[in-house]
Design a protein that fits this description.
The chain contains 12 helices and 11 strands. By secondary structure, it is α/β, with parallel strands linked by helices. It has a domain of 67 residues: 2-Layer Sandwich (Alpha-Beta Plaits). The strands form 2 sheets. The protein has a 7-stranded mixed beta sheet, sandwiched between helices. The protein has a 4-stranded antiparallel beta sheet with strand order 2-3-1-4. Helix 3 packs antiparallel against helix 4 and helix 4 runs antiparallel to helix 5.
């Protein structure tokens, strides 16, 4: 096993101190704020100790099998809200109705895994009934921002020949615009019903919940002719866990504790392009 230590503010001294805990055979700098420790005496106890110390120091500690690189994979699948983008779109739409606190509270509980996702989405969308559909464009124009490192990560994986999938429990209004903007290969999300220029408070068709996200990753991998072990899946919430569970590499990005605990690697401080450092 190798250990990759990285953090946007990480000093050389901090990285060296954390590396000493791992007792690697050798260490290799990966730029100014990252270090790879090679050939570790790996154990779950050592991993827990290093991850705790790194988190306290504002550093991401990623254990990865030696020799793994982007070339080992054929697909990068990403959640949208709070992963590829910094916001939860439904919370910002609700803000146009003056209902952001109520909706955000439900969103947060669902992402922690405390509420059934499909039921929670139905409740939240119902609160949007009567809102002018132009609010969606306002959210996209005024509030939607790409997460740090997102554009660099996408450019690199596409240049390496990997296909890209945006799969979201959010809405096609946003996923389709992002798909076109970044030339993504696939996108799948919920469809908000609009009548007479206003949201009806309903979703058309089935809800993209945790199970559907997993099926989507499996379906796209089958279409590409690759096993799901050649997929990288990135997410932040409990409804991402099933699709992360079938991936060859799962990445928890600024994620809830329940997701960090189950992911292959976690990026708590680095941008999405931290994936490139891990697989360098």
């Amino acid at each position: 096993m190798n250990l990759v230590l990285q953090g946007p503010q990480a000093s050389t001294d901090t990285l060296a101190r954390l590396a000493q805990l791992a007792r690697p055979a050798r260490s290799l700098p990966l730029g100014a704020h990252a270090l790879r420790c090679e050939d570790l005496p790996y154990s779950p106890t050592l991993r827990a100790e290093i991850e705790q110390a790194a988190f306290a120091a504002g550093v991401d500690a990623s254990f990865i099998e030696a020799g793994r690189s982007l070339r080992d994979f054929g697909l990068v699948a990403m959640d949208m809200d709070s992963t590829l983008i910094t916001i939860e779109c439904i919370d910002e739409i609700a803000d146009m109705q003056g209902l952001k606190p109520q909706v955000a509270e439900i969103t947060e509980a669902a992402m922690r895994g405390e509420l059934d996702f499909a039921a929670s989405l139905t409740r939240r969308v119902a609160l949007l009934e009567g809102l002018d559909a132009s609010a969606l464009q306002r959210v996209y124009d005024e509030r939607l921002r790409i997460s740090p490192g997102g554009e660099a990560m996408l450019a690199a994986v596409q240049a390496a020949g990997l296909k890209t999938l945006l799969v979201s429990g959010g809405f096609t209004f946003f996923t389709e615009r992002l798909r076109e903007r970044f030339k993504l290969d696939y996108a799948h999300a919920n469809v908000l019903e609009v009548q007479d220029g206003k949201l009806t408070g309903r979703v058309i068709g089935g809800i993209v919940d945790a199970e559907e996200k997993k099926r989507t990753v499996q379906r796209v991998c089958a279409e590409l002719g690759i096993p799901t072990s050649r997929a990288i899946v990135m997410g932040d919430g409990a409804n991402d866990l099933q699709m992360m569970g079938v991936a060859g590499l799962s990445v928890a990005f600024r994620a809830k504790p329940v997701v960090r605990a189950q992911a292959s690697v976690a990026l708590n401080f680095s941008g999405l392009d931290g994936l490139l450092t891990i697989l360098a």
